[in-house]
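User: For this week's homework, look closely at the record that follows, marking any run of repeated tokens, and judge whether sequence predicts the tokens.
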Amino acid sequence: MRTPFLPWLVVAALSLGAAPPEKAEAEPLTTRIQRASEYARSGNDVEAQKELALALKEAPKDASALFVQTCVFLEQGALPKAEQSLKRLRAVAAKDPEVVILASLVDQRRRQPKLDWHAAFLRAWAQAGRPHFAESRLLLEPPTSSSDGKIEVEAAWERIEAVDVRLILALSGNVLGGPALEWLATHLDDVKDPILLRAAFEHFLTAGPQHPEALAKARATLKPRLQKLAAEAPQEMQLRLLLLLGDTDPKAPFTPEELAELERIADLADYRTASTLSMYTEAMRLLTLAKVSRPQARAFSAFVGELALTGPYRLTQRALVLDTLPAADRERLGHVLSSIGERIVEETTLVEYLVGLRMVIQGVEMLNDPKRRENVGAAQRHAFKLARVTQPQDMDLWPLPSLQRAWTTASLENEREHLRAFLTP
């Protein structure tokens, strides 16, 4: 081993007049606090406190460090320490909306130890004037966060070759090039999760037209497996719609066979059986393995990709092609659209709710039912209001894991109810 000789080499170099090695440049304070905040968000209080101790030794009045420290103590339930840290924080940043909200959370937890974090935050947020947190100086990005998400995803793709992780990277909203699609198409046999399989089929249907060879290969691999899964879930509409219509011509009229199958699908009990929370949780797990920054936000994008809305979308597209359909078949199609749309409306996400309402409206218009059209139109107008609400930005950057979990659960279990809290009174 050469290590024991290093001190001698250094001495020799100095004796010959060589300059000593330069001291490594000190790490920026912001980077240390960013890392502390990231540790706190992940629930690693020990490492967060180590970073904060060094940061506050260097800058005892740094607002962002004191903010993270207060959050860590609050998360632990160490309220005397949280109140002491909050006092120091208020001395330097009393008017920051995040500090006003944090003070309210500390006060609410003191009065109610088993805090409903979601409800408590909404109360504090409203009392603070419903701030947006745009350009916050206290909600810090991870130190490794890249301003170019595409570059970060490409780097993650190169780091890990697990096909389910690479697939979730593709679903998280970053467009992959032809070679990446070809690789995925070749390795789809290794995907076991049924949700990921249907999401993969939808992804190739939307990304594949520019890469027909990859699309053909993916279709050949996925369709037989998805048909088997559909047979194992006899009451679910979602996968049957995707298989029946996903790769059909959007301008083609329905054939008698397709219309008959759509009627069978319309009689099924459920649109989808997978829970939104389980879908998001698995996406989050895979993105954490990929070691990308802010996996929570990317998991939401991937989760939307897993909703497999191509089937309903293609149904509404092809329902516009009515020239060759006899009047009786148009009425049958109106009932199909109305029935399937009603099932989709029952789902918990806003995007599914909007898709379902649009489908019901299309159906009742075919059935010439103006009263029902008026009622569904009113529900649609309210849904559009929900789609336009302004939520607080960067909620995933709050260094409070309990708040993160409560916020995610509320938005996934019933997104419409979650969004109603942000409607302007």
